[in-house]
Amino acid sequence: MRHQGMVSALVEKQRIMNSRQSRRTATLQFLRYALTGVMNTLLTLLVIYFTKGILGINPWIANAAGYGAGFVNSFVWNKFWVFRSNNGVMREAIRFCLCFAACYLLQLLTVWLINECTPLGDMEFRIWRIAFTGYGLATLIGMIVYTLANFILNRRFTFKTKLHR
After folding, report:
1. What are phi and psi of 84, to 5 degrees?
2. More confident of the two residues 105 and 129
3. Of 35, 83, 104, 130, which is least surrounded by CB within 10 A?
4. Angle 158-162-165 (CA atoms, 0-180°, nearest 5)?
5. Would you say the pTM of this structure is higher than 0.85?
6. If residue 110 lies in a helix (H) or strand (E), which one and from where to where?
7. Domain endpoint, select from 62, 84, 106
């Protein structure tokens, strides 16, 4: 009887330690994900400005090139650094595209709902001399929704490991 109680206590202690380790891993992954997002934004802007400003390419093509470079950059950093996945590249690339599309649509829906269904859409206010609009604030909220949803989907679906099932 006493032996069974000791085993139960050890099992519970191991469960708590695993839970703490999982939270630490998720936090570290999210910090890496955020840093990757900053690097990705800078790369996207650099490609857009270089292709349009220096090479003189059409702005729409420059924009597509920038976002394309950012998309590929994001996949590579997320696969190999953020989530450290060893799974098949093609499978994860397809899943990454699906997650991107789902999160982008969720972001669009968020912005649309805030803009069209709340008084925020018609608002405009100033802080110092900078004008802010309801659409701008809705876009910021949509970006936060996108970022959180994309992290969760990539962690649980795209780059899923046995620990995250």
Report:
1. 50, 55
2. 105
3. 130
4. 65
5. no
6. helix 89-117
7. 84
